[in-house]
What does this fold into?
Amino acid sequence: MILGDFQLTTISGGVFRIDAGTMFGVVPKVLWQRVVDVDANNLMTSATNCVLIETGEKTILIETGYGSKFSEKKRRIHGAEPGDPLVENLAAHGIGVEQVDMVILSHLHFDHAGGATQLDDQGNPRPTFPNATYVAQRLEWVNATANFPELQGAYPQDNLLPLAAAGQLQLIDGDVEIVPGIRAEVNGGHTAGHQSLFIESGGETAVFIGDICPMAAHLPPLWCMAYDVDLLQTRRAKPQLLGRIAEHGWWALFDHDPEIAAARLQRDAKRGFAVAEALPQL
It folds into this structure.
């Protein structure tokens, strides 16, 4: 996608399988099964759509997928791809890990920050992108590294602590411009420090929504995930954000949709919002 002076490319950080019930929380199966397909084990396909932004001056990556550090058992459980999908897919696009200047993370769950680090020859985790600054919300980082027992499965520390140890971590506070043309807005809900990223160039805007609305199937305002730590906040923030996107004709970038990379939205009397125009995954 050409967005003003920027080139935006969806780069897969790996496809995996996930329980569909958890992806739709309290929404009855009789409703969500109309919009997603599941296998005999109730598992659905989930993408990890990372966004490569080439500004002409910097090479910036939003999200890192789940990475390459899964044990074989966890890889089987998640139905995850072998190897390091993000690194391999970037290389296929002509981008090496040393060329990435910045990595911006919407939040720090394993399927978004897992690819931020990889194991070296001695089996120790290190930053995947040696020349990049990694950007995250301070509140998200504090919660992710606090070792809360109930959050340990969501925030493996070997995804995170090596970033700080290497001096490559930049923590931001609230709604800020990260670099010219890319700004963060905190919406919470999915996690307390969850942020969406606004990419603006040449009078055009695309919004990486993040897990506030992970797939086009989640466009109904009350359709939320079981993983949301503050369901009420998600239900407040999502329609406000989607309404702005629809009103202004911005592009919405979905992080887990296996079929749609980007879409323009419109209001819909039945579902709240619907896809008006879609750019498919390549």
